[in-house]
């Protein structure tokens, strides 16, 4: 599956590069996942492949770890109730009666099983044709102890909120219990903290959780959303 995906991504990248020059388009891919879910590792692997293939382009991938699988014997160290609540917000917008993993949400506009490589490639191709509504500029990111302060500006159409997500580039974890016991999992662009702001504020502080290590590679991914959680712009900056 991954070999075929690499071929598809290679084809898609060339067309994406041309589209990006013309309209500054973007793709935000939010994966809702869990180390306690046996069907999630293929989706985690797919997200990592996309991250590496598009590392120099405007494809932004985020891995949100939910907490409702923790009851099965393995507590995902990256999971929070807040990320589960965020997934429920999407379920309400999509008129879904339930939430599931692995779920991949693209630009807040559609969702599908996170391990479906053909749908992922198709989504990248389709959304690369759309023009961004908001241009985000991230400035003066400074870390002091466990706090990151950052300023931002947003140009373009009105938006409902802006998300600033602190992400850890990758982690390797040996799972001792639960559905994935005895497996070694790699997670990419793990959301460590998510802060929501509004158009009336132009600076924000993000707290770094205690599980983040000094050696971790950190990035802030910011994206604006309208009142239906549809993504209208995105940017990122390394810390």
Description:
With 239 residues, this protein is α+β, with helices and mostly antiparallel strands. It is built from four helices and eleven strands. Strands 2-1-3-4 form a four-stranded mixed sheet. Strands 8-7-10-11 form a four-stranded antiparallel sheet, with helices on one face. It starts with a helix and ends with a strand.
Essential attributes:
DUF1223 domain-containing protein; signal; DUF1223; four-stranded antiparallel β-sheet; alpha+beta; single chain; four-stranded mixed β-sheet; Thioredoxin-like_sf; 239 residues
What's the number of structural domains? Answer: 1
Structural class: alpha+beta
Radius of gyration: 17 Å
* Average pLDDT: 91
Pfam family, one: DUF1223
Signal peptide: 1-19
Organism: Aquimarina litoralis
Protein name: DUF1223 domain-containing protein
Quick structural summary:
Strand 5 (about 135-145) and strand 6 form a beta hairpin. The strands form 3 sheets. A 4-stranded mixed β-sheet has the order 2-1-3-4. A 4-stranded antiparallel β-sheet has the order 8-7-10-11, with helices on one face.
């Amino acid at each position: 599956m991954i070999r075929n995906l690499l071929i598809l991504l290679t084809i898609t990248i060339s067309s994406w590069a041309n589209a990006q020059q013309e309209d500054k388009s973007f793709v935000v891919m939010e994966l809702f996942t869990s180390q306690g879910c046996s069907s999630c590792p293929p989706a985690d692997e797919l997200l990592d492949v996309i991250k590496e293939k598009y590392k120099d382009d405007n494809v932004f991938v985020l891995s949100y770890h939910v907490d409702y699988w923790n009851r099965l014997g393995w507590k995902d160290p990256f999971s929070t109730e807040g990320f589960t609540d965020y997934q429920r917000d999407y379920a309400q917008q999509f008129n879904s009666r339930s939430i599931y993993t692995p779920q991949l949400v693209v630009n807040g506009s559609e969702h599908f099983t996170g391990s479906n490589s053909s749908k992922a490639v198709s989504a990248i191709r389709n959304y690369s044709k759309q023009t961004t509504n908001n241009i985000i500029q991230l400035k003066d990111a400074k870390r002091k102890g466990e706090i990151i302060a950052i300023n931002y500006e947003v140009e373009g159409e009105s938006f409902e909120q802006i998300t600033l997500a602190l992400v850890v580039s990758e982690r390797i974890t040996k799972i001792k219990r639960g559905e994935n016991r005895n497996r070694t999992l790699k997670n990419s662009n793990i959301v460590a903290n998510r802060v929501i702001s509004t158009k009336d504020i132009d600076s924000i502080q993000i707290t770094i959780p205690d599980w983040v290590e000094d050696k971790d590679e950190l990035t802030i991914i910011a994206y604006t959303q309208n009142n239906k959680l549809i993504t209208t712009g995105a940017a990122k900056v390394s810390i």
